[in-house]
Amino acid sequence: MSATRVNADPAELAKFSELAHRWWDPQSEFRPLHEINPLRLNWLSGLVAEGSGKGLAGKAVLDVGCGGGILADSMARAGAQVTGIDLSTKALKVAQLHALEAGTPNINYREISAEALAAEAPASFDVVTCMEMLEHVPDPASVVRACSTLVKPGGWVFFSTINRNPKSFLFAIVGAEYVLNLLPRGTHEYAKFIRPSELARDVRDAGLELRASRGMGYNPLTRRYALNDDTSVNYLLATRKVVAA
Q1: Is 154 annotated as a binding residue?
Q2: Domain harbouring 119, CATH code
Q3: Is 205 one of the annotated binding-site residues?
Q4: Is residue 66 domain-resident?
Q5: How many domains does the chain have?
Q6: Residues 234 and 175 sit within 8 Å (Cβ to Cβ)
Q7: Could you tell me the pTM of the whole model?
Q8: Domain residues for 161?
């Protein structure tokens, strides 16, 4: 790690480290991640396939803030050569153990920040994902810039996070954490939520071009998640690195 300040909140790292051993239990606090993973994987794979015709297969992929490796593992199984990075030692150990036990091919985990890896290996990846992570760091724009540096010109960068408005407070915090108990209480802080316009600005400033956006909703009656056009709470952005003329 460099001598510069690491873009991480120790309290956030501790929060997820305490739950790390439950990461791969689909009935645990991480159940929502297991349930939304096929949705986000299919969406990003489809967009990548539009340009290459083969989705993630054969692509060099980086998952920033990989945690226990739910998305990273599924992308590796889709044929990508995946690197997962995180600053939670315990979560990475869980990810590594799962990959070993499951025999997941083509996957490597490293304890390093996005900014440090960007300085070490710029323009090294065809696809970069940063899911459910920006709302947990002190400086989200710094992570966006690092993701842009890490992806190859013309490559894809995918983000997902939570909008900041009264509805998102009601749904993502009150509803998800206190009423439906989908997430542990204290998982999110409203002040750290990011409006789509704010993330779109950071994306443009980092040399990325916004290509698509989707919202993600939860139906408490059917207990199912679905992608939709409503970005008022959870949302995903698909971007591509601008190719210099």
Answers
A1: no
A2: 3.40.50.150
A3: no
A4: yes
A5: 1
A6: no
A7: 0.92
A8: 10-241
